[in-house]
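Run log, item B.
One chain of 137 residues. Sequence copied directly from the ordering sheet:
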Amino acid sequence: MIYFKSPIFFNMLSLKEEYNALAKENAGNDAALISINAEYRYVLARRKWSVEQQVAEALAFAVTLDHVTVELIGNWVWVSGETWTHAKVLKANGFKFAPKKKMWTYAGVKTAGRGASMFAIRFKYGSRTVKETAYLA
């Protein structure tokens, strides 16, 4: 049986959403879940998403959130501000919480570096604020 009906997934997020919906529909049906997983891996392997496309999708999503500041630093998207109200959707869209920085991040390219300050990261990779929230005093 073919589960992924759309021949073209425009982005990785739409493929993940389809996968999650199919997994929920077929919960408890082991044979169907095995087929869904195999087909998902097949579609994922056939379609190559570039880092730039993934970062652009994450950036497009992040700027839709209210009361947050969105920064593009290198190939990473950083989200700060009143993020606690958006925690579930950020996590669902591939963002990870960086507790020391108190910011959410989407890593376009994984790195081994840990513990650098935001100042050092901005200095090393360059920073561009895409959306800034004005805070009232």
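Observations after the first pass:
- Residues 12-46 form one domain.
- The two ends are 58 Å apart (CA to CA).
Flagged for discussion on Thursday.
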